[in-house]
Design a protein that fits this description.
Strand order of the largest sheet of chain A: 1-2-3-4-7-9-10-13
CATH architecture of chain A: Alpha-Beta Barrel
Largest sheet of chain A: 8 strands, parallel, barrel
Oligomer: heterodimer
Helix content of chain A: 40-55%
Mean pLDDT of chain B: 95
Strand content of chain A: 15-25%
Mean pLDDT of chain A: 95
Strand order of the largest sheet of chain B: 3-4-5
Number of domains of chain A: 1
Structural class of chain A: alpha/beta
Shape of chain B: elongated
Distance between the termini of chain B: 67 Å
Radius of gyration of chain B: 24 Å
Low-confidence stretches of chain B: none
Number of helices of chain B: 10
Chain lengths: 295, 253
């Protein structure tokens, strides 16, 4: 693996917006410094042995805090976790020393098949204990706390007996993991499930949130014409999501916030302007916090 | 409690449009919601098709987006990924294309896919420092025939009955026009990555046999012999120079 334990700079936790690293933006990133507060990468894209992707990530990590975001652990899966995959995640954590490490409340692997989507988990006692066992195993192997991301969902299950927030709270209580609050997912799920997004966020255990995600979604309709939002990450953050985000930050203070844009990837400037929009909301909260400390 | 929903049921229905949506998948009114379930079906097929297209851009270009998507759908159903690391997904696509009856009149497509797979392996291979070409000068003349080379982790060879190098140069790298490709020529190609850029090199007559023997750890003398047996025009000094200049090797043993 080359440079295990390279000892990168230890940056302060960025109370700023970051963006997902896309290699096509690398020339601009290298010439226009400090446009964003941190970068996030999908861990699975950096599991090759070497080459251009690792070279780029090394350069980025020298200059920025990094968040390592897994999309393939299948924490909500029925079977045991893939130990080889866990080892790769541990190695990436050791190699790049990210300040955050996260994955999803979802499943994506069954038997040996990987579906490459974040599939929904019914919420009940059986699935709760399985998810907790899996998170315990992740934190044991990787040797650090992980953040668990709230899902965007399109369906519900007759087999669910626990609400999503209570399910997340129990996971945090039992495993000591933190949470990644995806505000776009909140808006998408609450629209799709006909829940109240503001109430969802009021109830969300904010003291355990280590990172926020923002992203774009695509509108559609379901079987009987009800709105159905798709978590597409292919456009600007929606006004409704900005409003929810602003309320959360005003209430709980600044939290490292990522703008996700993974499909129909825009020009670097467009992504930066999304990050700046998040920054202006975070800055206000940072100033409010400073004032409180002075006062 | 209702019978727990099995991931296997959910998964089987994702990959097979013919399978029924599993029981218990509902909308906010508690009624079964097949259109909502289809969002997951669509996500799986579309995202895996994109992953295959990222690995096989030339195959996609030659087939057209629509045909490639249809081919990918068949392939995904038969060979779903075995790992969440998608740079490792799609290894069987060349064989799948080769045995796909509707494509039997385009026999070169399987080799195009083989090339693209090898290119991706080289792109992500471990970083290694290529052999300094000057290293050969330090070997005594009478010892040359007995030296062996260790191949770079990124080094791959591909031999084809088709102009595989020209097809890729024309359709992937834009180095020449597709009209200029002589479909009657057969080519072999070396793919490696001495530093960060993947290098591709068409091999000379006998070059495939020569490189193949060296990569397998045979001596230089034996590799030259095998190549001469295959090709009466085999040029040892030109091929040896290709071997050193391409960065395909990391060490003289």
């Amino acid at each position: 693996m080359g440079t295990l334990g390279a000892h990168y700079p230890a940056f302060a936790r960025p109370l700023r917006a970051g963006v997902g690293l896309k290699l096509e933006h690398l020339p601009e990133i290298l010439t226009q410094k400090d446009q964003v507060g941190f970068f996030e990468v999908h861990a699975e894209n950096y599991m090759g042995a070497g080459g251009a992707s690792h070279r780029a990530l090394d350069v980025i990590r020298q200059a920025y805090p990094l968040s390592l975001h897994g999309v393939g652990l299948s924490i909500g899966g029925e079977g045991p976790l893939d130990e080889a995959h866990l080892s790769r995640l541990r190695d990436l954590n050791q190699r790049y020393e990210p300040f955050l490490f996260s994955d999803h409340l979802a499943w994506s692997t069954h038997d040996t098949s990987y579906f490459n989507d974040l599939l929904p988990v019914p919420y009940n006692k059986i699935t709760l204990s399985r998810v907790c066992e899996h998170i315990d195993r992740v934190q044991e192997v990787v040797g650090r706390q992980m953040l668990l991301e709230n899902p965007s969902t399109y369906v519900a299950f007759e087999q669910s007996t626990i609400g999503e927030i209570d399910f997340l709270k129990e996971i945090v209580r039992k495993t000591g993991c933190g949470l990644l609050l995806d505000v776009n997912n909140v808006h998408v799920s609450c629209t799709n499930q006909e829940w109240d997004a503001e109430a969802y966020l009021e109830a969300f255990p904010m003291q355990h949130v280590g990172e926020i995600h923002l992203g774009g979604h695509a509108p559609d309709v379901d079987d009987v014409g009800r709105p159905l939002l798709i978590d597409a990450h292919d456009r600007e953050v929606d006004a409704a999501v900005w409003a929810l985000f602003e309320n959360v930050i005003a209430r709980v203070g600044p939290i490292p916030t990522l703008v996700e844009w993974d499909n129909d990837i825009p020009a670097w400037d467009v992504l930066v302007s999304e990050a700046q929009a998040a920054d202006s909301i975070l800055d206000r909260a940072v100033r409010a916090q400073d004032l409180k400390q002075v006062g | 409690m209702t019978e727990p929903l099995k991931n296997s049921e959910f998964g089987a229905a994702l990959l097979n449009a013919g399978h029924q949506m599993p029981a218990g998948v509902i909308g906010p009114d508690g009624a079964p919601a097949p259109k909502r379930f289809n969002v997951y079906r669509n996500n799986v097929v579309v995202s895996l098709t994109e992953a295959l297209a990222a690995t096989y851009p030339t195959l996609q270009k030659l087939l057209g987006e629509e045909y490639f998507a249809a081919l990918a759908r068949e392939y995904i159903g038969k060979y779903p990924p075995k790992s969440p690391v998608l740079i490792w997904y799609g290894q069987e696509l060349a064989d799948f294309v080769e045995s796909f009856p509707p494509l039997s009149t385009y026999p070169y497509l399987a080799d195009v896919a083989r090339f693209e797979w090898a290119w991706l392996q080289a792109y992500h291979a471990a970083d290694q420092v290529a052999l300094d070409p000057a290293a050969l000068a330090e070997i005594a003349a009478d010892a040359l025939a007995d030296i062996r080379f260790r191949a770079h982790a990124a080094t791959h060879l591909l031999t084809s009955s088709w102009p595989i190098y020209d097809l890729l140069q024309a359709n992937r790298f834009g180095a020449c026009s597709p009209e200029d490709v002589d479909m009657k020529s057969a080519q072999s190609v070396l793919i490696t990555r001495p530093d960060i850029e993947v290098v591709i090199k068409p091999l000379r007559s006998g070059g495939h046999e020569f490189f193949s023997a060296l990569i397998n750890g045979e001596t230089l003398g034996l590799a030259a012999g095998v190549a001469m047996e295959k090709s009466s025009t085999f040029d040892l000094s030109a091929n040896l120079s290709d071997a050193l200049e391409s960065g395909a090797f990391v060490e003289i043993l």
